[in-house]
């Protein structure tokens, strides 16, 4: 249903190839779009969110033929799997377009005919190279070494066939002018520069039909040809809006799209070919194309051929869709690549969802029940710490909105989690359990105020986190006893004090459970396979920057020389700036090794007992390949004391010993010569 009173917002994901099951990288892409769509709805926009499937082309035809079924039988089965995945990921798309839908086919034929009629499509012969997995044409000059696709590195095929061509070259100058006049059209900026370089090198006319197979949409005026799969696929963004229907309201309301969200390797198709097709057809261009980075495993893009594909379904079944969504969106800065590792995932889910958010809710509801029979009394913000909390709440909504509007989703989440942290601290500062003893006059009124502040903070937090964790967020309002969460808008939480007097909380189950940390699984060839192996184990024990030794995904260690990125790792660029306060949260100190021994049945782990100044601590560290236990005793190391504990091979490990490593697999524990244990590192 369109609502013409509100501003419209049309967002799309790429339509996915049903050449295989979708993996966690595709899930990442769709989760980003879903989060933006949900945010825009809360921000008051009339949103249309489209995803779908890209079903034609030589690649699909070959797979189906090998299986002895028709291409449509094959794609229908796989597409049912896509739909199931989006359902369990809680994806809120308004439409799902298949390029095999009749509604799509007729629009492709109509636009192809129009481009032909206006003289931008002409007949010729294509002689050149084709990457079938990517469905892309390449000239000899642009190919990679040994006739490989410069995008994906796989072998290309030589093709020679009659074809129609689209006059891309004619539009190069107009395209450059458009990009100059619309500097924000391609995001992030680095991708914009790449595309400008690409066009400046010269645009060739694009082959837009094929004759050597028939799994595609027929060229309307020549039955021997099927439309090139990318020409076909890009049209989905318009065909889904029914531009040829009697009722054109969707098309009129939502085209041009506000955002095409796409992975970085298909930015070229979306920012060069698609706008030029639209220029030729005299149609408005989309407002923005954002090229997000890839989700990678040990520095390598996931792919079936590398065998490092992570299936999202078992992860969702075990940890829930909110956990996966939260991790992907908070961990990766949109536009950059991000590394998925199971230990890091579980650690973030435990600390941010179960501890920070989940516990805040549990504690608040339990205290309101215990102290006030579940009833919240509305109060003013007059006590110590109240104004601080209120100010931060209102500022957080503003910062969150600014970041979400600029698609800096991880920063938006960070701002919210800082507010969650502040609210947890408010409990420690106000000490409701002391107030509950009612030792002084005014304690009861203060206790009511503290409870109101906690509940109101949670009311606001729920609306802010809803786009990312749409399964858990409504439960926050349910437990607070507030109705109408589905319709709640950002406007409802901009100002403090929306929670009504007399609201009655309803205790429920914890919204996010804690999970056991996955045991470290040792790589099968750990002792011998040097090449391609990252010295991640030392950090893996701390759960940060760990390689994905998950069991589901063979790691770089198992792939040896096949792993390009692992073997040729370069010194990584400097990470994004952090604030001093972020650093100051780390408790880094000098610790002295009191004892050290190998962990039984482990090739990598050493168990340490450390004197950390105030007490003794047990730490398990994956550095056994580098040091003998005896040589560690008496050494003074730098130790991260406030890392959440975790169990490794059955031993509870507290904190982490810092080491430095290079990409030739060398590791050195950082050491201090003369300072005493407990000295601070800052
Ligand atoms: N069918 C084309 C898109 C046509 S849009 C008119 C296609 N399909 S795809 O299934 O190969 O990829 C779809 C999207 O998934 C792309 O945006 C791609 O970047 C994204 N991803 C595939 N693997 C990915 C990761 N490992 N990480 C993040 N996104 C990834 O291209």
Inertia-based shape: globular
Uncertain segments: 520-569
Strand content: 15-25%
What is the share of helical residues? 25-40%
Which ligands occur here?
5'-O-[(L-methionyl)-sulphamoyl]adenosine
- Rg is 28 Å
Number of helices: 23
First and last CA, distance:
57 Å
What is the overall pLDDT average? Answer: 89
The structural class is alpha/beta
Cross-sheet strand order for the largest sheet: 3-2-1-12-13-7
The total of beta strands comes to: 25
Query: Strand count, sense and closure of the main sheet?
Result: 6 strands, parallel
Architecture overview:
With 682 residues, the chain is an alpha/beta fold. It is 39% helix and 17% strand. The chain has 23 helices and 25 strands. A 6-stranded parallel beta sheet has the order 3-2-1-12-13-7, with helices on both faces. The radius of gyration is 28 Å and the shape is globular. The N and C termini lie far apart (57 Å). Residues 520-569 have low confidence and may be disordered. The protein binds 5'-O-[(L-methionyl)-sulphamoyl]adenosine. The site of 5'-O-[(L-methionyl)-sulphamoyl]adenosine has 20 residues, from strand 1, helix 1, helix 7 and strand 12.
Task: Spell out the blueprint of helices and strands.
Blueprint: E1 8-16, H1 24-42, E2 46-53, H2 58-67, H3 71-88, E3 95-98, H4 102-117, E4 121-131, E5 136-138, E6 157-166, H5 172-181, E7 186-187, H6 189-200, E8 206-207, E9 209-210, E10 218-219, E11 222-227, H7 229-234, H8 236-239, H9 249-254, E12 259-263, H10 267-281, E13 289-292, E14 295-297, E15 300-301, H11 312-319, H12 321-331, E16 338-339, H13 342-372, H14 386-405, H15 409-430, H16 432-435, H17 443-465, H18 473-480, H19 537-540, H20 556-559, H21 564-567, H22 580-584, E17 588-598, E18 606-611, E19 616-621, H23 629-632, E20 636-640, E21 646-648, E22 651-653, E23 656-657, E24 659-661, E25 667-669
Parallel strand pairs: 1-2, 1-12, 2-3, 7-13, 12-13, 14-16
Antiparallel strand pairs: 4-5, 4-6, 6-8, 9-11, 10-11, 14-15, 17-18, 17-20, 18-19, 20-23, 21-22, 24-25
Helix pairs in contact: 2-3, 5-6, 11-12, 12-13, 13-15, 13-17, 14-15, 14-17, 15-17, 17-18
The chain binds 5'-O-[(L-methionyl)-sulphamoyl]adenosine (MSP).
